Amino acid sequence: MSIYGKIKDHYDYSQRGEQRVAKYCLDNYMEVSGNTLFQLAEKAKCGEATVVRFCKKIGCESYHDFKEELTDETQEHLKSENDSFVSQIYQNIQTSIEYTIQNLDLEQLDEIAALMDKADIIFCAGVGNSGIPAEACAMRLVRNGKNGIYFKDNHFQSIYLNELKHNDIAILFSASGESIDTIHCAEILKQRKVKTVCVTSSIVSSLATLCDYCILMKRWLGPLGGGSMIGQITQMYIADLLSTRTGMIDQKTTLKAKETTFDYIIDKMRKERI
């Protein structure tokens, strides 16, 4: 039986001092092992002899043995909590990706990819946590020989939006679908009759209602509140789907772009050696 269990089983102690020790240990279970005999006695408002007597009543030879058993127990408890935390995040990532796959319209994905393949410019936008997958999407498209564009600066982004034409396309990332800057992008693009695709968690969000296409993702909040990297991972997965499917349409251009990148890297490595 655990120390915690032994304390609960022997909670009906005859001495009030022992009762106070038991109550303090149960209320502060994870902290008790860090106390000396004197400190525990002081916090439980009893004498050191009372603490020792309490330890013997729950089957420990001494306060030292009590502390050792309790330390092992609390460390095991913390390890179990950490394992659970790690597993939970992994399961959340799996659930998020599975949700995206289940809600993915493959015909729509092909239609979007066809538009991206024909577009002169593929404009990618996102702010905050959604900025990272937006930038990654643009980079992947460039590596596939497409003209992917991303701006971190909202001012430059707004200027560039007014240069886009009806044969271009924009991929807009926003987990909530309510990011003010991204909604502003969608409004301008709608006025300019530029095709838009949003990656968001809600089909009834402000962003989704403005866009021509919507790819759904599952939104997660982090354990401390706020955005979670699980959402970013899901958005990156969708960005990979879009860039890969687009690259598959014109494989000749994609392979040529990869060869150009490879040649550049080899040339750079050679120059660095000289």
If you had to describe this structure to a student in words, what would you say it looks like?
- The chain has 274 residues and is an alpha/beta fold.
- The protein has two domains: 78 residues, Arc Repressor Mutant, subunit A (Orthogonal Bundle), CATH 1.10.10; 167 residues, Glucose-6-phosphate isomerase like protein, domain 1 (Rossmann fold, 3-Layer(aba) Sandwich), CATH 3.40.50.10490.
- It has a five-stranded parallel beta sheet, sandwiched between helices.
- α5 runs parallel beside α11 and α7 packs parallel to α11.
- The chain starts with a helix and ends with a helix.
Give the overall pLDDT as a whole number: 85
CATH topology term of the largest domain: Rossmann fold
With strands numbered from the N-terminus, the spatial order across the biggest sheet is 2-1-3-4-5
Number of H- or I-type helical stretches: 12
CATH architecture term of the largest domain: 3-Layer(aba) Sandwich
Termini gap: 69 Å
- Spans of at least 5 consecutive residues with low confidence: none
Largest sheet: 5 strands, parallel
Gross geometry: elongated
Could you tell me the radius of gyration in angstroms? 30 Å
CATH class of the largest domain: Alpha Beta
- The CATH superfamily of the largest domain appears as Glucose-6-phosphate isomerase like protein, domain 1
Give the tally of structural domains: 2
Number of strands: 5
Order of helices and strands: HHHHHHEHEHEHEHEHH
Give the percentage of residues in beta strands.
Answer: 5-15%
Going by helix content, strand content and strand pairing, the class is alpha/beta
Helix content: 55-70%
